[in-house]
Each structure stands twice: as C-alpha cells, then as structure tokens.
Write the structure tokens for this entry.
Amino acid sequence: MSEIYDEARAWLDANWDPDLSVGEWWEQLCDARWAVPMWPEDAFGRGHSRSDATLVSRAIRDAGALPAPGGLGIMLAGPTIVAHGTDEQKAEFLRPIVSGQEAWCQLFSEPEAGSDLAGLQCKAMRDGDEWVVNGQKVWTSGGQIADRGMLLARTDPDVPKHRGISWFAIDMHQTGMDVRPLTEMTGRALFNEVFISDCRVLDAHLVGGLNNGWAVGNTTLMVERATLGAGPHAAAAAMPGTVAGQLERRAGDFVSGGASASEGVIAGGAGPIAMRIARQHAPITDPVLRQKIVRLHILGEIQRMSSLRAKAARAAGVKLTGAEPNIAKLTMSEVTRLAADVALAVQGPAGTLLRDPACDPAGAELALFAPAVSIYGGTDQVQRNIIGERILQLPSEPRVDKDVPFRELRTSARP
C-alpha cells in the first residue's frame, strides 16, 4: 500500500500483544512514535502528513491492535502545547498525553461566557510561584475523568477583556475542584459543570505567556473545529487517564469494542449512523426522503474532499484562507441535523420509542443529541461571524466594550 503503511504494519506485527495492559501498549506506541505520527519528532511524532497518519491508523486497525489513546489531550491540549509551550512544558505534558497516562478536559465556557468567551470571569491571582484560581466553568466534556484541565482564567482585570486572559494546565485532582456531571436528554452525562475554589496552578504551567491566553485559546478552538468538522473518524475504545480505570486492564479486551452512539456523533459519525439505518430499511420510495439521503451523502463527500483539499494545500505550501475549521464545523452541524432527520423519517414513529423492536437506539440517541452539535465548539452563529468578519472582511458587529477595562464592564454581578 505504501512504505509508511508497511513500516507501521511490520512494527505492529512484531509488537502487538493483546495480553499487555492498555497502559503498557500505549507506552509502546508512544515510544515507537506511532501514536501521533502527525506531530513533530520532538513531540513524540514523526512529522507525517494527515494522509500518512491515516495510513498508520489503518495499519493499526488491520493488525487488530488497540488504537492510540483519544480524548481531549490528543485532540486539543497536545496540539496547543506543541504550538505554544516551552521546551520544559512539552517535556512535562506531552508524553503523558501521547501515552494515555493523563486525560484532559477543557475549562473554557462559563455560565455567562459561552459565545462571548472573552467575557469569562474565572480569575487567577498570583501568589509567589503559583496562581490561586476561583470561578465556575460549564459544558466541560470529560471533566469527571480528567487528570488535567485546559484552563482559561482572567489574570488582569484592568485591561480590555481579550487582553487579560491566560491559558493554564491545571491539576484536576486537587481539593477545591468540584466536578458535577450534567445529565442530557440522552441519559448520558458527557458534559459537566466545574466549581473551582482556591485551586492552585504553578506559574510554570502557564502556557503561551501571561495575558496571552486569548491567542493560545484560539489555537485550541481552531484545532477543535477542524477536528470535529473533518468527518467521521473512529473513537478510541479505551479511555485514557488515571480516573477512568482502564490503563491496567487487558488491551485485547478493548479491540472488539467501540464508541457509544453519542461518542460516534461527537466524532462526526452522524452521517454513517443515518446511512446505515437507511440501508437497513431499503427500498425507500418516498422522493423527498430519497432527496434528503442523497444530500446527506453529498455533504459527507464535501466534508471528505474539503479535508483532502486542505491537506493538499498544506503539502504544496499554499496559504489557506483561515476559514477552513469554521466551515468544517458548520458542515458538521448541518450533517448532524440532516442525519437525525433522515434517521427518524426512515424509521417512522418507532424511531423515538426505544422499547419498540423497530427502533434503532443509535438513531434515537442521534435525534436527541443533534441540537448540541450546533452549540458546542462554538455555535453556528459564531462560526458565521468569524468567517464574515475575519475572512470576508465584512463590517464587524458594534462592540462598545472593545477598549474598556474588564473591571469596568457591566455584568449580571455588576449591573
């Protein structure tokens, strides 16, 4: 197939052992630099292109081996630290991420700072070589199993809101970190609210420079949107980190497993879920429904081809527009909404009745989960604003608070 696939497959055939623990196997993948082959060589990667990394993933699957760890450490924290971290921070944080020893969560959104993320009020105050953090976060995916968190906190309230934020890598196990799962309509609790009371984080764990958190956080968000919108991809069957309790279990026990329905939706799998349900109920004669199914297939192909075009541009050294992650996230939202519509339309009334034999559980859960996709990772409206203002150079929305020190801004607490 290719030299990279053959090299990876040869290593896997020689080293994969289903009787290893999950942690032991992930350590081997990390040391061999097959866990994140797209990352730079000084970050436990090989500097491969995305297409070559896809070949490595295929080799792992074809060998019947447990895939590399997933989660927000690999997806968000690692790329952000690679881009903005010091050598010391890379040495401390990257290996536990790549080897799955630590799981991460994202402490960005707050009850009054979602779409207006720069309005966050969680504060960090300097205390010698540490910062003391107080505040509340919400919609924290995986917070209940995280070892560390990507924290945005206000470190200077006397400058405009975008300029007084810093990005920290904070320990989630300390006293004062109260994680409370939020149960969704699906019955799951993928998200959490987090109350932070006098928690501490080392100044050495401030990533990207003091008060530069808005730029660092935007790197995190762009990676998130690009990854979410890249189309369907497999989620790791085993969960990283010390809290999930899976590092000591037998690696082979997870190979035949897979992501849950909601995890599949998050990974961009809404389209495949709906297409599978449609095929199971064929033949479908309703022309309107057939048109929706064809549109779903077309949007899936657009996702795939857009990703390939971006890869080709990067490989050729062609500058991208900068809107690719936002467009990908918008496409994902549209695909998910349409997939939920198709899944319900194909099954009819039974599609919402989990106890009905005709109901596909993944389709029912997709219908319940679909509204979330247009919200998390930045709402559809936020994506359109970014494209309009930053890429198309359309007039910005009026911002009366742009140059006002954060301390002087009106909030619900300071009307």
